[in-house]
C-alpha cells in the first residue's frame, strides 16, 4: 500500500507525527518532495531538535528558504522562541494595557507578569506562525514535521490553553468595561480589546483547521516494536479525543530479507507487531516501508524513499 489522497487540492496541511526516531522527518521531507511536483509546497518543522537541514542535506533555519535541487519546495524550521519574542514585541503594549486598566497592579508587577513564561505560549506562537502562513496563501501544501508525540500532543491542547488564557484576560477587561460604563456611561473598545478578539479568532482558526478532515491530515509514523506500538495507540487515541481522525499509518523500518538467521528472527518479531497493528487499525490505510540498507538523506535519498511511500 502507498500513501493516498494527499494531492487533493482542498488538503492544505499534512502533519507527520510519532515517537522520536521512527522516521517522521524522513517521511515528511519525502512527501514534500513528492507534492512539490504539482504544488507549491512548504515543508516545516516545530520539533525543537530540528532536523530538516540534516535530512535535506542543506542548511534551512528560521526563515523560509528555497530547497536547492527541488523546484517548488521551500522549507522552514520554526523557532518558537523567535515567534514568541516577535509576538511580545508586537503586542506588549496591548497586553500591558489589559493589565494596566483592569487590575491594581503597578508597573513593576506588570513587568514581572510579562516576564513570566506562560506554559506553551511559545508553541502557540509557533502555530500562529503556521496559521498566518496558511492564510497568506503563498503555498498550496504545508507539510509539518512535528515534535515527538508528547510535544506534538501538547501543541494540540494549546488552542484550549490559549482559549483559557484569553478568557482570563477578557474577564479582566469586562470588569474594567463595567466600571467605565457605570461611571462614565460610555465604553469605547480600544486596541487591547482588538488584541483579545484577534487572539480568540486565531485560536478558533487553529482548532477549526486541525479538526477539518478535508483541509488537514495527520499521518502517524511508527516502527514494529513494542514501545512504538504502545505510543502509536496513545497518539491515535489522544488525537481522536481532540477530534482529529487519523486515516493513514506508516510502519517504517520493516526488515524484508529472510536471508540470514538474524534477519529471520528480527522479521518474526516485527511481524507480530505489524499483525497487532493491522488487526487493531483495520480502518487505516497502512503503508509498510522497508528498512533501507543505506542512510536515507539528501535530496537523492529522499527521492528514492518517496517512491516507496507513494507507489508502495
Ligand atoms: N526506512 C528506513 N531505512 C533506513 N533508514 C531510515 C529509514 N527511515 C528513516 N531512516 C533513518 O533513520 C534516522 C531517523 O529518521 P528520522 O526521519 O530523523 O526520524 P524522526 O524524525 O522520527 O526522529 C535517520 O537517520 C533516517 O535517515
Ligand atoms: Mg525528526
Biggest pleated sheet: 8 strands, mixed
Strand order of the largest sheet: 3-4-2-5-1-6-7-8
Specify the CATH homologous superfamily.
Answer: P-loop containing nucleotide triphosphate hydrolases
Q: How many β strands by DSSP? A: 8
H/I helix tally: 10
**How many distinct folded domains?**
1
The CATH architecture assignment turns out to be 3-Layer(aba) Sandwich
Question: What is the CATH C level class, in words?
Answer: Alpha Beta
In terms of structural class, how would the helical and strand content be classed? alpha/beta
In the predicted model, the low-confidence regions spanning at least 5 consecutive residues are: none
What small ligands are held by the chains?
A: adenosine-5'-diphosphate, magnesium ion
Using only CA atoms, what is the Rg? 23 Å
At CATH level 3, the topology is: Rossmann fold
The outline comes out as: elongated
Question: What is the distance, rounded to the nearest whole angstrom, between the alpha carbons of the first and last residues?
Answer: 5 Å
Order of secondary-structure elements: EHEHEEHHHEHHEHEHEH
Amino acid at each position: 500500500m502507498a500513501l493516498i489522497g494527499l494531492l487533493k487540492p482542498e488538503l492544505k496541511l499534512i502533519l507527520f507525527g510519532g515517537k522520536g526516531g521512527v522516521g517522521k522527518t524522513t517521511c515528511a521531507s519525502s512527501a514534500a518532495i513528492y507534492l512539490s511536483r504539482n504544488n507549491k509546497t512548504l515543508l516545516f518543522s516545530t520539533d525543537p531538535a530540528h532536523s530538516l537541514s540534516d535530512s535535506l542535506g542543506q542548511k534551512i533555519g528560521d526563515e523560509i528558504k528555497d530547497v536547492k535541487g527541488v523546484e517548488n519546495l521551500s522549507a522552514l524550521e520554526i523557532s518558537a522562541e523567535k515567534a514568541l519574542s516577535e509576538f511580545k514585541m508586537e503586542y506588549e503594549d496591548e497586553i500591558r494595557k489589559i493589565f494596566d486598566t483592569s487590575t491594581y497592579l503597578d508597573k513593576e508587577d506588570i513587568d514581572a507578569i510579562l516576564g513570566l513564561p506562560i506554559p506553551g505560549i511559545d508553541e502557540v506562537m509557533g502555530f500562529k506562525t503556521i496559521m498566518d502562513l496558511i492564510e497568506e496563501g503563498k503555498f498550496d501544501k504545508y507539510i509539518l514535521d512535528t515534535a515527538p508525540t508528547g510535544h506534538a500532543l501538547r501543541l494540540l491542547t494549546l488552542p484550549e490553553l490559549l482559549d483559557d488564557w484569553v478568557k482570563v484576560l477578557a474577564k479582566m477587561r469586562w470588569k474594567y468595561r463595567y466600571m467605565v460604563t457605570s461611571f462614565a456611561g460610555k465604553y469605547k473598545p480600544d486596541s487591547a480589546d482588538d488584541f483579545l478578539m484577534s487572539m480568540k479568532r486565531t485560536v478558533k482558526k487553529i482548532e477549526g483547521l486541525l479538526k477539518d478532515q478535508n483541509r488537514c491530515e495527520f499521518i502517524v509514523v511508527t516502527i514494529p516494536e513494542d514501545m512504538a506500538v504502545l505510543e502509536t495507540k496513545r497518539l491515535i487515541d489522544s488525537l481522536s479525543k481532540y477530534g482529529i481522525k487519523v486515516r493513514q499509518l506508516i510502519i517504517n523500518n520493516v526488515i524484508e530479507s529472510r536471508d540470514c538467521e538474524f534477519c529471520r528472527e528480527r522479521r518474526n518479531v516485527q511481524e507480530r507487531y505489524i499483525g497487532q497493528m493491522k488487526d487493531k487499525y483495520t480502518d487505516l490505510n497502512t503503508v509498510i516501508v522497508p528498512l533501507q540498507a543505506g542512510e536515507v538523506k539528501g535530496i537523492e535519498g529522499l527521492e528514492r524513499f518517496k517512491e516507496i511511500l507513494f507507489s508502495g
